[in-house]
Structures are given as structure tokens and as C-alpha cells.
Amino acid sequence: MQQTLKKDVPARRFKKNPEPRRNGPLTPWLWIAPAVFFVAVFLIYPTLYTIRLSFYNKYSTLFVGLKNYQTIFTDADMLATLRNNLLWIVVGTILTVGLGLIIAALVDRVKFEGVAKSAIFIPAAISFVGAGIIWRFVYTSAPANQPQIGLLNAIVQFFHGQPQAWLINSPGNNFALIAVYVWMWTGFCMVILSAAIKSIPSDILEAARTDGAGGLTIFFQITVPMIRPTVAVITTTMVINILKIFDIIYVMTGGDFSTNVIAMSFYQEYFNYNNYGLGSALTVILLIVVIPVMIINIRRFRAEEAQR
Known about the structure:
Low-confidence stretches: none
Radius of gyration: 29 Å
Oligomer: single chain
Number of domains: 1
Number of helices: 14
Shape: flat
Mean pLDDT: 87
CATH architecture: Orthogonal Bundle
Helix content: over 70%
Order of helices and strands: HHHHHHHHHHHHHH
Largest sheet: none
Strand content: under 5%
């Protein structure tokens, strides 16, 4: 009997495994079905419904065609809103990316690099609402004959200057709002660009210094060209963020004093005035502007992957 068991064990041990079960053609779709469901319900359907509403009147009871879009591009207040968004995109993007790049290059040479980066990055951890409240106190103004509780006007008054209504006087109030965004996001840009700068091979920089290249020459002719893909990604990211800017304006001015932007105007039309047609049209315009920027980013990512 022992001999029989010894003979059976190897036979069972080396028995061939059964052939694996083949998956049917529907198996991949079953795996992605939950993701497709959530995308369809929470993204595709609301987008199509919003596009439909943009062709109807205020209460979505009468089809008006392109009238809402015509209003956006002919009404004086709406044109001011579009101009403000363009101002935010140009000034905000240039300052955040430009300052982030300059600071990243300078901080790379500082002895206490980690401390300096942490101090500059801290505002990025603050919410837009929190930053808006903080800077609203900074910009607070009082009559010239009274004590100034706003930090900026207190400094102006200390040097015998005339206090200013920073959030009321146009167009300076738009730049005051943009300054809050720059204060928050420059640190983020700095961290990403600093990592890109550190990835540049040191032998390239050493060779340039050996050839007699100065700091500015190395920065503009070596550093910037080599991190151009990262700069492009950061730039498009800032553009998308600025196109959606809402919280800072809502907290600090509420869109008054000629500071309205597209997202804020959409909120007012949709929730304050119940003008669903015009509010939806503003959303569609915002979507149309954002899509090309996203496509550029996706194509850049694919080109970089193809080169690897």
C-alpha cells in the first residue's frame, strides 16, 4: 500500500492544469461599465443639458436660438466681463509662471533652499475663500481722517500718502484681485519648475561655465530651453485655473465695481437672477475656451511619451 501511495503522489503533483477560461468579448465592457456610467451621468448628460438650455429663454420655456450668445457679445456688462477674463489670463499667467521660474532659479542657489521654498509655497495650501478673506482685510480702506485698519492703507498713511479704495477703484481693483491669485500660485509654479531645473544634467551647465557663459546666458539659452515642456504644462494649467476663477471675486467684491468674470457672471445669472438661458450660454463659452487648452496639453503629453 505504501508503494501505491508513493506512485500516486508524483502523478497528482505533475498533473496538467486545466486550460484557462477565455473571457468573452463583453468582459472588458463589464469592467469599465461603472466608470462609463458615472461619466455619462455626472459629465456628459449635464454638459448636453446645459448646451440645450443655452438655446432657450430665461425660464427655459421658449427656444430663442443664438440670442443668449448674441447678448454675451453685445451687452456692455458682458463685454466687460470677457475683458476682465482676458486680463486675468494674460497678467495672471505671466506673473505666476514668470515669477515662479525666476524664484526657482534663484532659490536653487540659496543655502536654506528648503526653508525658502516652504515659505513661498505656504499660500498654495490656503483655500481661495481663506485667501480672499485675508486679502480683503489687507485692502480695507477708511476715510483719510480715520485710522486705517487695512494693512496696505496703513502703510500708505504711515508714509503720508492718501488711502485708496483698492477694491472699488477700477481698473486697479482687477489688478488687486489678480495679485491675490499670484500670491497663492507662484509657489506652486516655483516647486514644479525647480524640480525641472534640477533635472538638467550638471555637466551641461559646467561646460557652459567653462566656455565663459554668464548666469543670464545660461538661464536664457540653456535652462529655459531645456525645461520648455514643463513651462508649457504649467502655463496651460494656470490658464485653465484662471478661466475657472470664482472664489476670490465672490469673497472680495462679489463681481461689483467692474470686477466680474465669466464664472462669477454665470453664478449671478443662474442662481441670483434665475436666467437659466444666459447662465448656460456663459458656461458653454467657458467650456469652448477650456477645451482647446486641454487638447494642447494632451497632444504635448503624447508627443513626450512618443519621444521616450
